[in-house]
Design a protein that fits this description.
The chain has 183 residues and is an all-alpha fold. Helices cover 72% and strands 0% of the residues. Helix 2 packs parallel to helix 4.
Length: 183
């Protein structure tokens, strides 16, 4: 199965919108955003990663629905999974100067925009609203799952969370490369 979670299925209803984000690229990216937000952002700002993603997703889906696209969009989406893996690795072992919050959130927004353009390009003839409500709701729930996973990682693996987070990031990086190779 390739990274193309955005084609080859119906986009006519709320139910299809709800199911849509369970494609491998979207699923991995959403969970990663939640884990990264808990791991890299201050505790009182962990909500900013998922909120940034959702806002950029919706805005770019509207743009995609108007017909704008970019070349090699599915390739870029697959690579966004690797990007999130790299971001988790950086969060696991911050460099001498950790990634600035604004830069990390900017990367989240760029990746979300890629996903949103693909979603918008699939706007069904029956209308955008129901389908969009579905994929936004599922995306938010997947972000929440990532946040819970990140909190669990920090709580139950406190002294071992750094290598586990780094390994998770490495695994996401490889998964993104695999998805890319399948296109």
């Amino acid at each position: 199965m390739g990274a193309s979670a955005h084609t080859g299925h119906g986009t006519h209803s709320l139910m299809e919108g709800l199911a849509h984000p369970f494609g491998p690229d979207h699923l991995l990216a959403m969970l990663a955003v939640g884990v990264w937000s808990v791991s890299a952002l201050p505790a009182n700002k962990a909500w900013q990663g998922p909120a940034t993603f959702l806002l950029a997703l919706v805005l770019s889906a509207i743009v995609g629905a108007s017909g704008l696209t970019v070349p090699f969009l599915e390739h870029a989406i697959a690579l966004s999974v690797s990007l999130f893996g790299l971001m988790l690795m950086v969060a696991a072992k911050p460099l001498a100067l950790p990634m600035p919050t604004a830069f990390g959130l900017g990367l989240v927004a760029v990746a979300a925009s890629l996903h949103g353009l693909a979603h918008g390009a699939e706007t069904p003839a029956s209308g955008f609203a129901g389908y969009a409500a579905g994929f936004v709701l599922t995306t938010a729930l997947l972000h929440a799952g990532g946040v819970l996973a990140g909190l669990g990682l920090r709580r139950w693996l406190a002294e071992r969370s750094t290598p586990v987070l780094a390994a998770l990031g490495g695994g996401l990086g490889l998964a993104g490369m695999y998805l890319f190779s399948q296109l």
